[in-house]
């Protein structure tokens, strides 16, 4: 089963698609990557393989689609079990990792998203809330890393991937808001962690180039503004 | 006198999310102390301490370590008491992915839509919400057909993760069915009744089996 064909539908801008790519890389899984153009109409393959949400990433393994990045991460971890573990081994550590992943995606991301899409005071407040969330995540890092380099310990794991995939967008937000979210004084551990994460062999080839993303963010913000005005 | 339990649940009989945790513990035959939190009145110090991020029930406290978020707790229970009682999640990775996907859908899409019914005002808005709820039911019905593979539960022969994730809302479903707007759209309400009749029968069967 692990040797069946693997295809990933993704988009270069998507942190969620990046998560799947990092995980597949960690497990040394060969896969076919297909880029979905987020600015064009949704492809037939996307609509067919993820009819509920119609979003990337979708992992298609042995012709069966798996959607939702956190579900995909756990699936990859379980199918290619012999590779380096993505989730921690201990049930309590796993629960903590899942808890913070849900926090990042369900709560924290909303602030980041608002800060990218809006402008003026609204963007500023959202950036501040993102920064506050990162202070919480700094605490989570202390708890999870147990003195080591990553949330996952010695090597990158689930929570590293979940938060780390947002680093490109965090940098874009920092540039747009002209303030730091991962601050060397307020979140020193995350500051260092971010550097280690981006340098990781499974990450460096798929991490966002900030300038490219910055241009895309401008586009998104403009679209958002005009849709609010109509 | 409260026995000192190594497993405590900060929860409430009234909360479907708390019920998920209780269902999971019951499946695993784990003894626990339910600490009833009057969550609709105020947040206790105990709750704030155990769940500082969300300050919500349910919280599972196992050997003094708190676990929050109902679906995270259910997976934790499955893993911490692995080998005791039935497995909650399916064993096959693809089936697990499907179960997790639908549980996510229930929490992020389906349940919020159900809740919208309470605040929807005017016939047009209500009608639109009911339409979304029914679409959701249709999707879950499809999911059930795929996951159950002809058996009684999403989990197959046994109650599993997705049964717990959805089944906890039966109380809500009953309220929905008796809501004016559902009554007005009778044929569709009957369809929901049918669907939940199935789930309810399965739930009753599960309760009987768990009690044995």
Task: Report the uncertain regions of chain B.
Answer: none
Structural class category of chain A: alpha+beta
Distance between the termini of chain A: 50 Å
Name the structural class of chain B.
alpha+beta
**Average pLDDT over all residues of chain B:** 84
| Unreliably modeled segments of chain A | none
**Rounded mean pLDDT score of chain A:** 96
Protein name (chain B): Glutathione S-transferase
GO biological process, one term (chain B): glutathione metabolic process
Family (chain B): Belongs to the GST superfamily. Tau family.
Domain GST C-terminal (chain B): 92-212
Explain this structure.
The complex is a heterodimer of chains A (230) and B (212). With 230 residues, chain A is α+β, with helices and mostly antiparallel strands. Chain A contains nine helices and four strands; from the N terminus they run E-H-E-H-E-E-H-H-H-H-H-H-H. The radius of gyration of chain A is 18 Å and the shape is globular. By secondary structure, chain B is an alpha+beta fold. Helix content of chain B is 61%, strand content 8%. Chain B has a four-stranded mixed beta sheet with strand order 2-1-3-4, covered by helices on one side. In chain B, helix 1 packs parallel to helix 3 and helix 1 (16-27) runs antiparallel to helix 6. Chain B is globular. Chain B starts with 6 loop residues before the first strand and ends with a helix. Classes of the chains: A alpha+beta (230), B alpha+beta (212). Chain A binds chain B through residues 52, 61, 64, 66-68, 70-72, 74-75, 78-79, 91-92, 94-96, 98-99, 102-103, 136, and chain B through 53, 62, 65, 67-69, 72-73, 75-76, 79-80, 82, 93-94, 96-97, 100-101, 104-105, 139. Chain A: Belongs to the GST superfamily. Tau family. Chain A: Its EC number is 2.5.1.18.
């Amino acid at each position: 089963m692990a040797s069946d064909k693997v295809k990933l539908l993704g988009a270069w801008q998507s942190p969620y698609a990046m998560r799947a790519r990092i995980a597949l890389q960690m497990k040394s899984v060969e896969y076919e990557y297909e880029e979905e153009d987020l600015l064009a109409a949704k492809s037939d393959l996307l609509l067919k393989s993820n009819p509920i949400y119609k979003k990337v990433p979708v992992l298609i393994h042995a012709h069966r689609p798996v959607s939702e990045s956190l579900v995909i991460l756990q699936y990859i971890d379980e199918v290619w079990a012999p590779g380096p573990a993505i989730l921690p081994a201990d049930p309590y550590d796993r629960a903590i990792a899942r808890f913070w992943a849900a926090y990042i995606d369900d709560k924290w991301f909303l602030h980041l998203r608002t800060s990218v899409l809006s402008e003026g005071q609204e963007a500023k407040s959202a950036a501040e809330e993102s920064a506050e969330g990162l202070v919480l995540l700094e605490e989570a890092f202390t708890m999870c890393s147990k003195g080591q380099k990553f949330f996952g310990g010695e090597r990158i794991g689930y929570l590293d991937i979940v938060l780390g995939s947002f680093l490109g967008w965090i940098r874009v937000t920092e540039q747009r808001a002209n303030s730091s979210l991962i601050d060397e004084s307020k979140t020193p551990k995350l500051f260092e962690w971010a550097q280690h994460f981006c340098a990781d062999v499974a990450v460096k080839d798929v991490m966002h180039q900030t300038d490219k993303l910055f241009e895309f963010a401008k586009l998104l913000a403009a679209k958002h503004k005009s849709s609010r005005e109509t | 006198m409260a026995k000192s339990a190594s497993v405590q649940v900060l929860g409430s009989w009234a909360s479907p999310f708390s019920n998920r945790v209780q269902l999971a513990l019951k499946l695993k035959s784990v003894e626990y102390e339910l600490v009833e939190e009057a969550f609709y009145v105020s947040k206790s110090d105990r709750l704030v301490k155990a769940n500082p991020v969300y300050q919500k029930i349910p919280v599972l406290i196992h050997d003094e370590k708190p676990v929050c978020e109902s679906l995270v707790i259910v997976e934790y229970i499955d893993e911490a008491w692995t080998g005791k009682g039935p497995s909650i999640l399916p064993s096959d990775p693809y089936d697990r992915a499907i179960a997790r996907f639908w549980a996510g859908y229930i929490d992020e899409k389906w349940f919020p839509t159900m809740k919208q019914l309470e605040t929807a005002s005017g016939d047009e808005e209500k009608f639109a919400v009911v339409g979304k709820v029914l679409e959701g039911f249709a999707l879950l019905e499809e999911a059930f057909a795929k996951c159950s593979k002809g058996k009684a539960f999403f989990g197959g022969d046994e109650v599993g993760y997705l049964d717990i994730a959805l089944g906890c809302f039966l109380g809500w479903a009953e309220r929905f069915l008796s809501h004016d707007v559902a009554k007005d759209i009778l044929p569709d309400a009957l369809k929901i009744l049918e669907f939940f009749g199935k789930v309810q029968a399965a739930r009753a069967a599960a309760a009987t089996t768990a009690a044995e």
